[in-house]
Design a protein that fits this description.
The chain starts with 5 loop residues before the first helix and ends in a 5-residue tail after the last helix. Helix 4 packs parallel to helix 6. The chain is globular and about 50 Å long. Helix content is about 40%, strand content about 20%. The chain folds into 2 domains: about 110 residues, Glutaredoxin (3-Layer(aba) Sandwich); about 90 residues, 3-Layer(aba) Sandwich (Glutaredoxin), CATH 3.40.30.10. It has about 220 residues and is of the alpha/beta class. The chain has an 8-stranded mixed sheet. The chain is built from 8 helices and 8 strands; from the N terminus they run H-E-H-E-H-E-E-H-H-E-H-E-H-E-E-H.
Length: about 220
């Protein structure tokens, strides 16, 4: 049974009709001990069928360990959205509910290889020389979470030093506990700095700079 109904399928087709370039949806799964792997794989395959510019690549997290390590994938289900290059755009957990829009936006932005970030943000990100890891914790029913995810993914696309993950909090409870996720969205930057809610671009950029400076809150 398809995950996308007929109406949603047609909407997604229109959304992906004018992709600027090819995009690979590289998904990691395994047969057992992964609650949403089967659904995530089905979603990736259904979406990939809706555009000639999209391809789905499915790997086993265990037997394709080298591929997972190459892409820095350390948990499943995982989706790496890769265009002309790997910008570090990742989804951990099924991008369902409101997060489905984040997946579609990531596909379009990765295909184009450019963002809607301000010139000031782009200038700051161009000067980043140390690795930045952004983790945005979400739930499928959070209407504000996609804004935080999209912003983090745009920063990853804008800078080769930034990688950004959507992390579905309920699928990775150990991480939610580790990072004290009491509400979503919650963005964690380089393990030390965090911010709550769908914060505006200047605030997220400020927190990113705090993380690079080694400051904690």
């Amino acid at each position: 049974m398809p995950l996308l109904d007929k109406e949603t399928t047609e909407q997604v087709k229109r959304e992906l009709a004018d992709l600027a370039g090819p995009v690979r949806l590289v998904m990691f799964s395994q047969t057992f001990e992964c609650d949403y792997c089967a659904e995530t794989r089905q979603l990736v395959e259904e979406v990939a069928e809706l555009s000639d510019q999209l391809t789905a690549e499915i790997y086993n997290f265990v037997t394709d360990k080298e591929k997972a390590e190459e892409l820095g994938v350390d948990k499943i289900p995982a989706i790496a959205v890769i265009g002309a290059e790997d910008y570090g755009v990742r989804f951990y957990g099924i991008p369902s509910g409101y997060e489905f829009t984040s997946l579609l936006y990531a596909i379009r932005t990765v295909a184009a290889g450019k963002t809607e970030l301000s010139e000031e943000t782009l200038k700051t990100l161009a000067g980043v020389t140390e690795p930045v890891h952004m983790q945005v914790f979400v739930t499928p029913t959070c209407p504000y979470c996609p804004m935080a995810v999209v912003l983090a993914h745009q920063m990853a696309i804008a800078s080769p030093m930034v990688r950004a993950d959507m992390v579905e909090a309920m699928e990775f409870p150990h991480l939610a506990i580790k990072y004290q996720v009491m509400g979503v969205p919650r963005t964690v930057i380089n393990e030390t700095v965090h911010l709550e809610g769908a914060a505006p671009e200047p605030m997220v950029l400020e927190k990113l700079q705090e993380a690079l400076a080694g400051e904690q809150i």
